[in-house]
Fold these 4 entries.
Entry 1:
Amino acid sequence: MIRLLIVLALHFIIFGCSGMKGSGQETITNSSKPASTLVEEKGDTVPGTENSYSIFSDPALKDHVVAAVPGNDFTLITERSGIFISPDTIEIERLKQEYGEEDFYTAADDNLYYEYEATEFLKKKGVKTIYPNTRYLKFKTGSGQEYFFDTKPAGSHKWYLILFDPSKDHPALISAINITEDYSKYFGTN
């Protein structure tokens, strides 16, 4: 049954869906552009030395932080969340060409399985799950810090999970494979 759900989810993603919504999942979006719009990669990363947020001192995060986004094309994240990032249709076609269709579908199947497992884990922990329809996120912490986050900078992983707690000054980028361990490290709870 789980495999069937994963295959159906993969089919849904590959054939034109940039995000999935379902029971218990809510996306907070301030978007004025269609979800299928892919913004070309730009060198708009904010250098770490120009801002006091500790997010800029983390090498895994600094390439994701950007000074601005086009229009209002972002998803606002203000609460404790797990944000699932997946390739869009253009990236899927590139991955198929780069790795071949068989290897792509094997990798996609594995990623979707671990995403499902991570989703179930986060639900049990009472953490909101988000599947953004936008390339950019806007994080707002409890202390009022706000910053834009590019989910698709050059060289980034195509499938990953972002954990966010507004009581912290930065999110954590993790692999869904390590959800139990990384959840405890970031949130500091079991």
Entry 2:
Amino acid sequence: MLNQLPADQGDIVDKLITIFAERGGVHYGEGVSQTEHALQSAVHVDQQNCSDALVCAALLHDVGHLLHEDDIYHAEQGIDAIHQDVGANFLEEYFGPAVSEPVRMHVDAKRYLCAVEPGYFDLLSDASVLSLKLQGGVMNEDEVQAFESSPHLEAALILRRADEAAKVPGLETPGFETYADRLRGLLKRA
């Protein structure tokens, strides 16, 4: 993981902007870059009039990919890089669970929706199908029940649907800096 991350909250938003500017141009098996995907996800959630926390969770849901020091697409290598946990663990240090938990749950939300919603699997991109296999596949009944007990269930499902929709090459979105004030407003207070 990147070792030059800020020690205090005041610098984290600027650091996130820098991480996306420096590393977000990487494509990950889709027709869009990590930054394009993040911004499209945030726009989709924002258009649903969701909370700032959920909009920011959508923006940052794949930050775990960017925190790895390598620039490889892990799924193509047959590796589940558990980016949802890497990202959520990082984000929970600076933001509350309204941001970190939907990030942590967005992979399992895909597994869940494939289990409970007929036709959802057919909506997945090839890259999402590949990663689904590495991430545990479709949930079984026990996993579905456990997932449904989370207080962040609805947020995770909204984020997941935005994640799948946010793969449109060339779609114009506001820049990452547009979300800086919202991110700063969500920072935990020391």
Entry 3:
Amino acid sequence: MTALPASCTCAAPDAERRTLIHATAAAGGLAAVGAAVPLVSSLAPSERARSLGAAVEVDIAGLPPGGMLTVEWRSKPVWIVRRTPEMLQSLQGLEAQLADPASAKDQQPDYARNTHRSIQPEVFVAIGICTHLGCSPTAVAPGAPQSGLGAGWPGGFFCPCHGSTFDNAGRVYRNKPAPTNLEVPPHRFLSATRLLIGEDSASA
């Protein structure tokens, strides 16, 4: 093996090695992206649903009492909750604790400007994004010990990012970071078991 002259610093081979490493990494990254595209495409919603403002039709026949279904509309999560009689009862008597109990602020269509904030009392539709900084709240059952909300918690939604709480109609509690109730998107019933999210009778 021939020794390199003492004056050689080997800078050129090191530079070439670094260039080769960078080029290989870049090529590998492009290959990974190329492999991911078919998977992402296969999980994407239909062309109609991805179009700006396109309504999304949802079958809620299999949604049980107390169950929640999440669909995507305008790249936002939309909750559909089939409320039980107990969940509807929990909406009563909270007026003094809520920031906007009568839904005076325009966070819902006129047909959802009621105590249950819905067309049909048992079916609640809302955008699952906290109105504070856009975090994602979670549904918390009454008295759930892991939530830290206390034994008197009647059930609703809790945003763990900054502590905002909402009742089972998406109405925000007083003195919380979220400034308004959860948004109710335009929607209508096509039948007893099918909903159209993003379009109502006024805009159809």
Entry 4:
Amino acid sequence: MRQASLRDYEELCALFDELDEIHRQARPDMFQPFPPPARTREQVAHWLAQPESTVLVAQSEEGVVGLAVLLTRVPSGFAGAVPRKVIEVDNLVVRADQRGRKIGRRLLAAAVEWSRQRRATHVEVAVHDFNRDAKRFYESFGFSPSIDRLVLAA
């Protein structure tokens, strides 16, 4: 596990493509194909340059086999909210041919450690309802549900 660099850009895009395709297949009503690249070089550079975000990668002899994008969420402005510093796991994906090898668990452990080093009070992740495997993965790590977001087409 290590922090990504812009030298990883092509491999990161391949992983983002895999992740995006999972979402498009499951929810074509919400996710559509878009022109490549999967993420712009500028977006990745921004994540890497900002102290409140990063991209972690799992590296093997086969190259970059997984990634986690971590973003610091702005605290709630609601006066009744308990002050928190939240790091969100915005994306986490392991290359399809590498799944089942605990790479995701090691990436998530590295994400939690990165968050602790930045004195986060919580690490959060949003999981779409269709992604039951991801939900089980995060729950097996110790994450618990916090909120259910319900959607109605207008």
